[in-house]
Specification:
The chain has 487 residues and is α+β, with helices and mostly antiparallel strands. The chain has 13 helices and 14 strands. The termini are far apart. Bound molecules: adenosine-5'-triphosphate.
Length: 487
């Protein structure tokens, strides 16, 4: 640079340029000298006095103005598109913490949807398709694996007009019907009852949102859903052996209408089946806690939400109250206390502080039910035995008392060594202090060797239904085990 500071563009019109500085090139030939003396056609500066004004002085500001305008419009378009995209996300789903409903659900009526053979496909306009709420889960599956959208008509046909004879059970949010879909697939169809305040809408959204993204052999699969006008229905894989509750506590399940029919008459679940169920459930919770990001907290894990397939393999269901977000500070979410009496972790019940460890506590209660055959809260029992956890905890660490507390239906199908190990896991899970409870990964790892030892079946493969009361160990008495004293 020489000593000529370049003027700012904004000052161009008011600025009188200094004459061109002498150039070393002017000492050269004529052509070079002419080129230097003639006004440079692309010079931004006005021509010297007396010469014709350069037309570029008019064109340049105009072009600058035009470019500026184009840029402005482009920025505005980008802003509008970004904002629209954000609104659509909020409208379609639930918030990250899952408590606040989004915009009112749009219907999936025939005018709004793309259809093929009368079936509505979400990508063509139905709200619960691939762009569901921004739960931010890393486990996003391709659309082809997603849930289908059904019309109300289709589900009406599948359930014989929602006939009473097809009622499988009733839950807090609606009635579940047995059904057969158009292609012959058996299904469990849950018809949610929306009240005047549209309670149930949030549960519907969360369940569709989560289950259409999470796929695990240990979770009940969502085949589809229907959001046709005011109807809200969920279509699940049919689990022919009902809930774990209907097997462990058949009378209680029938009394509350959770199960309309008593369980199949094969008798109580045997020890090995119970172990496999425990492992399947542990894997389901491990998946929710460790294999999704952010973690999903089930929030209502209990034996009504454990369903059994034709091989008595367990799958966890009912994500209506699930919560996403233990990615928050300290892995905690503060929330309304929802769940089932007897399964609630103490810190969650008293303060609403929810973490994955709340699920671990509930899991511990289910493990105790599998061990003892008792319900979590039973006011019919003698004082001191009403609450399963408080009754069981001191017994879990005492060999003799432990053997006595085992479900009498198990009649010596287990070794005391295995029993002690399972009891130790249960005891850890129901610790009052959340930080002393194990991770579900630890529970899975502790259960695997116990389950594997069985000569009858292994939970790592899909098992055939084991025989009832398979005694795969010699009677415990012969081994000098105290279990022989079990009733
Ligand atoms: N996929 C399924 N296959 C077979 N039966 C099912 C299935 N889902 C639910 N059921 C039956 O329907 C009943 C009601 O289920 P639902 O999920 O509505 O309620 P719940 O889990 O028992 O209770 P809540 O919703 O109050 O926690 C269950 O107890 C079970 O008997």
């Amino acid at each position: 640079m020489t000593g000529h500071p370049r003027p700012e563009m904004a000052d161009v019109s008011a600025f009188s340029p200094s004459p061109p500085a002498p150039s070393p090139l002017s000492a050269g030939g004529d052509v070079a000298a002419d080129a230097l003396l003639a006004p440079w056609p692309l010079s931004p500066w006005p021509a010297p006095h007396g010469s014709r004004p350069n037309p570029l002085f008019a064109i340049l500001p105009l072009s600058a103005l035009a470019i500026g305008l184009v840029l402005l419009v482009a920025v505005a378009v980008i802003l509008v598109l970004t904002r629209r995209g954000r609104l659509r996300m909020v409208g379609a789903g639930v918030s990250v913490d899952g408590d606040k409903p989004g915009a009112p659900a749009s219907s999936c009526d025939s005018s709004a949807r793309g259809s093929h053979n009368g079936r509505c496909y979400p990508a063509a306009g139905c709200i619960y398709g691939g762009r569901l709420g921004p739960l931010g889960l890393a486990v996003v599956q391709p659309r082809s694996q997603g849930a289908q959208v059904f019309t109300y008509r289709e589900l009406e046909r599948a359930t014989d007009g929602f006939s009473e004879g097809n009622v499988l059970g009733r839950g807090a949010y609606g009635v579940v019907f047995r059904g057969r879909l158009g292609d012959g697939t058996p299904a469990a169809i849950k018809r949610l009852q929306l009240d005047l305040r549209r309670q149930g809408e949030r549960e519907f959204r969360v369940e569709v949102d989560l289950l259409s993204r999470m796929h695990s052999p240990h979770l009940v699969g969502l085949l589809g859903y229907c959001a046709d006008q005011s109807h809200r229905l969920l279509v699940f894989e049919f689990m022919p052996n009902g809930t774990l509750k209907s097997h462990l506590h058949p009378a209680a399940a029938v009394a509350t209408e959770e199960a309309m029919t008593p369980p199949p008459p094969q008798g109580p679940l045997d020890w090995q089946t119970r172990l496999c169920i425990a492992l399947d459930c542990a894997r389901a919770l491990e998946f929710l806690h460790e294999h999704t990001s952010p973690a999903v907290i089930h929030r209502d894990f209990n034996c009504s939400n454990v369903l059994l397939d034709h091989n008595y393999r367990a799958r966890v269901s009912d994500f209506a109250t699930a919560k996403v977000g233990s990615n928050k500070a300290n892995g905690q979410v503060r929330t309304r206390v929802l769940g089932t009496t007897g399964y609630l972790a103490p810190e969650y019940a008293s303060t609403g502080k929810l973490t994955t460890k709340s699920d671990v506590y509930s899991y511990g209660v289910v493990l105790l039910e599998l061990l003892t055959g008792r319900v979590p809260v039973d006011t019919q029992r003698p004082p001191g035995q009403h609450v399963l956890v408080s009754w069981a905890l001191p017994r879990l660490t005492n060999r003799e008392r432990l053997v006595q507390m085992v479900d009498p239906a198990l009649k010596g199908q287990f070794t005391v060594k295995d029993l002690v190990q399972v009891a130790a896991i249960a005891a850890m899970c129901v610790q009052t202090k959340a930080e002393y409870r194990p991770l579900m990964t630890d529970v899975v790892q502790s259960l695997i060797p116990i389950v594997k030892k069985s000569p009858v079946m292994s939970c790592s493969s899909t098992p055939a239904r084991p025989l009832q009361h398979v005694v795969y160990m010699s009677p415990l008495k012969k081994q000098g085990s105290p279990a022989a004293k079990a009733p």
